[in-house]
């Protein structure tokens, strides 16, 4: 059931003004069908309170729609603008972020709006009802284990669910001290802690430069940034570079920070082994050929006590593909949602913005979020408000999306990276399935795709449901070396207890969503 105005206002009074702006009441919101009464659907439900979700929610609200904003975190900002909890007493959290002023503006607008912000809501499924409205199912609490499920209804749905890190395994990657590159940045931004004192940053993609400069500025010693791709591939698309000067400036800022902290950048190289007993003690860095195969005799050891590694980001699109949204292949081998000029998916009434359509950064996410918010308001209100602004947003979106595709292609994993793996290397960490078992399933048991390997070995059946191992399994099982994109269709986007599924048969008014009170 939707949140009633009195419930939302009461929760807001209990929370007061907080950094995340908590739960905002829906009083005074006028949507396409007038004031939303108790039990009536919202005009718009937005899933994800990162850059795209915030921009979409506040834009739609300011244009007159009643909006519910759901997010699993207790604070708005998503992964990019993750920041410490007030209890940690951070004096200048903006020092760890790029373009903090843009987020501050969105947060201010959220606080001034009538958006109902439902934090601590882990959305696990969405569905279209016979009357055309959408139902959003969520579990609540910090880890999704609160007693009662939540159910929100809305006339339109905007997915701004972001992305997660892609990991390519290598010997020793399961040792304590090996963390995701984005995970290391999250530890620093939200917890003000470092994964180690001497940290090698490795993988591929522009995120590595940001992570390394942040860790170095926070006091860590960063011996090297190990980039598997080269940076010369950007030069193949001069138009995208010229039309996106802000990206070049951002790269120069990170580069200057690395020079200031004496951090070496090693292009065309990869961490091909991690050494240690109880935790990371050193890594082996090898030069790579054009296909990402290690060049024999080039391995050298770098002493460290932590490794932050990631090979790009994967759009998080499970909620969309579960209801049949079409996808498109991205230049780096991942899948993004196929979207029209106004951010609508192939399923009518469902829009998406940000990394769901392909990873492109916070500025692109904000642009797409606002564009989607305006398009949804126009659709529901039956008008074309601010057509000039829509044209401007579309041009900006197209320019930045072109650069995002160049970036994706520049850092796409080469076909030879499985040569990093020996047969004993665990590929699926959850189920402890080794590379040797996956290769055996492909070579001797006839598996030719990740799904068949999964049935034969249980690779991908663990807690992460293949998010960590999907790319590796698909590559190892590939026919003729051409890997298919990992499937992103899952019945549940997050784990849910059986009691939540049982509650689906209860009447609507027995399942209420109350804004979380920390």
- Mean pLDDT comes to 84
Q: Over the alpha carbons, how many angstroms does the gyration radius reach?
A: 23 Å
Strand composition percent: 15-25%
Helix content: 25-40%
The total of beta strands comes to 23
Explain what the structure shows:
This protein is an alpha/beta fold and 518 residues long. Helices cover 30% and strands 20% of the residues. It has 14 helices and 23 strands. It has helices at residues 5-15, 51-62, 100-112, 181-191, 207-217, 238-242, 245-260, 318-321, 362-381, 387-410, 435-443, 450-457, 470-476, 498-502, and strands at 30-31, 34-35, 42-47, 67-70, 116-118, 121-128, 134-140, 149-159, 163-165, 178-180, 199-204, 224-227, 264-267, 269-275, 282-287, 300-303, 306-311, 313-315, 327-329, 335-337, 350-352, 426-428, 433-434. The strands form seven sheets. Strands 3, 4, 5, 6, 7, 8 and 21 form a seven-stranded mixed β-sheet that branches. It has a five-stranded parallel β-sheet with strand order 10-17-11-12-13. The chain has a three-stranded antiparallel β-sheet with strand order 14-15-16, with no helix packed on it. Helix 4 (181-191) crosses helix 5, helix 5 runs parallel beside helix 7 (245-260) and helix 9 (362-381) runs antiparallel to helix 10. The chain is globular and about 70 Å long.
């Amino acid at each position: 059931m939707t949140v009633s105005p009195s419930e939302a206002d009461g929760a807001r009074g209990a929370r007061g003004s907080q950094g995340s702006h908590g739960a905002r009441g829906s009083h005074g919101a006028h949507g396409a069908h007038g004031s939303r009464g108790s039990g009536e659907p919202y005009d718009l439900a937005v899933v994800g309170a990162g850059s795209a979700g915030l921009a979409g929610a506040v834009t739609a609200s300011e244009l007159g729609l009643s909006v519910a904003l759901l997010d699993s975190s207790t604070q708005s900002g998503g992964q990019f603008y993750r920041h410490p909890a007030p209890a940690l007493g951070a004096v200048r959290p903006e020092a760890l972020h790029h373009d903090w002023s843009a987020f501050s503006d969105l947060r201010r607008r959220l606080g001034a709006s009538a958006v109902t912000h439902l934090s601590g809501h882990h959305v696990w499924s969405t569905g279209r009802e016979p009357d055309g409205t959408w139902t959003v199912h969520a579990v609540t609490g910090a880890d999704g284990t609160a007693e009662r499920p939540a159910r929100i209804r809305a006339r339109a749905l905007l997915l701004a669910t972001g992305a997660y890190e892609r990991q390519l395994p290598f010997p020793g990657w399961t040792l304590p001290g090996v963390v995701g590159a984005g995970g290391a940045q999250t530890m620093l931004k939200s917890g003000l802690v470092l994964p180690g004192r001497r940290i090698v940053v490795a993988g591929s993609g522009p995120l590595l430069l940001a992570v390394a400069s942040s860790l170095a500025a926070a006091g860590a010693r960063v011996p090297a940034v190990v980039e598997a791709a080269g940076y010369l591939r950007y030069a193949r698309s001069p138009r995208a570079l010229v039309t996106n000067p802000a990206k070049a400036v951002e790269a120069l800022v990170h580069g200057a920070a690395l020079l200031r902290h004496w951090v070496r950048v090693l292009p065309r190289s990869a961490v091909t082994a991690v050494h240690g007993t109880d935790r990371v003690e050193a890594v082996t860095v090898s030069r790579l050929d054009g296909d990402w195969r290690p060049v024999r005799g080039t391995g050298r050891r770098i002493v460290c006590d932590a490794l932050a590694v990631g090979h790009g980001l994967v759009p998080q699109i499970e909620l969309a593909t579960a209801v049949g949204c079409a996808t498109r292949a991205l230049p780096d081998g991942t899948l993004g949602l196929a979207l029209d000029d106004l951010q609508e998916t192939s399923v009518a009434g469902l829009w998406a913005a940000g990394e769901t359509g392909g990873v492109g950064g916070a500025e692109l996410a904000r642009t797409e979020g606002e564009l989607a918010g305006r398009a949804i308001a126009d659709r529901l209100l039956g008008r074309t408000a601010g057509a000039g602004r829509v044209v401007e947003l579309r041009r900006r979106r197209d320019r930045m999306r072109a650069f995002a595709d160049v970036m994706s292609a520049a850092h796409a994993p080469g076909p030879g990276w499985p040569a990093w793996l020996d047969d004993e290397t665990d590929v699926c960490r959850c189920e402890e399935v080794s590379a040797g078992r996956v290769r055996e399933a492909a070579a001797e048991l006839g598996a030719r795709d990740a799904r068949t390997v999964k049935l034969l070995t249980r690779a991908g059946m663990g807690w992460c449901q293949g998010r960590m191992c999907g790319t590796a399994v698909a590559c190892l099982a590939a026919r003729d070396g051409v890997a298919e994109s990992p499937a992103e269709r899952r019945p549940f986007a997050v784990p849910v207890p059986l009691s939540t599924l049982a509650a689906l048969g209860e009447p609507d008014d027995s399942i209420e969503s109350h804004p979380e009170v920390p």
